[in-house]
Amino acid sequence: MPSLLICIVLLLAPTISAHNRFDARSYFGYVAENNDTTFTNKTLLAEEFLHAHNWVRNQYQLPAFEWDEKLASYSRSYLMERYEDCLLVHSNSMYGENIFWGKMRYWTPSDATYYWYQEKQWYDFKTLTCAPPPKACGHFTQVVWRDSHRIGCALQNCQDPSMGMLIACEYDPAGNYENENPLQSHK
Prior knowledge:
It is a single chain. It is built from six helices and six strands. By secondary structure, it is α+β, with helices and mostly antiparallel strands. Strands 1-5-6-2 form a four-stranded mixed β-sheet, sandwiched between helices. A two-stranded antiparallel ribbon has the order 3-4.
C-alpha cells in the first residue's frame, strides 16, 4: 500500500505545482496556438511578447509596439553570450533593455512581462520615482515608455538546467530616463 500512495503523490506533484503557479497568459488574455514549451517557433514567441507588452501599453492608452527582428536577433545573440554563466547582467546595447531570470525552465514571454508590469505598484507618476527602496521600477517604465515603438525579445535556457533561463527584450528608441514621465512624449 505505501508504494501506491507514493505513486499517487508523485503523479499529483506536477499538478499541485502547476496549480499554484500564476497564469500570466490568462491574465493578459493570451491563448497560445499550441503549447510549444520549447519556444522554437519564433513567430509564436514574437506574438506572445507583443500581446503581453501591448496589453500593458493599452492600459495607459499608449501606441502598440511593433516587432523588430533586428532587436530580437540582438536579444538572442546577447542571451547566447550568457548561456554558460546565466548571469542577470545587462548588455551594453544602445537600446532600452529588460532582462528576466527564472530558476526553472518554464517561464513564458507573458510571465516576464507580467513581473515587469507588477513594478507599477511601486512607481509614483506624480514624483516620477520608485519607492520604497530598494524596489525597482525600470522594467515597468521601459514597457510603458511612450517614445519606444519597436521591440524584439528572446529567451534562452541556461547550459546548466539547474541555473534556469533568461529572457531579454530590447526597446527602440531607448527610453527610461530619470525624472521624465514615461507616458509623455520626449521628442
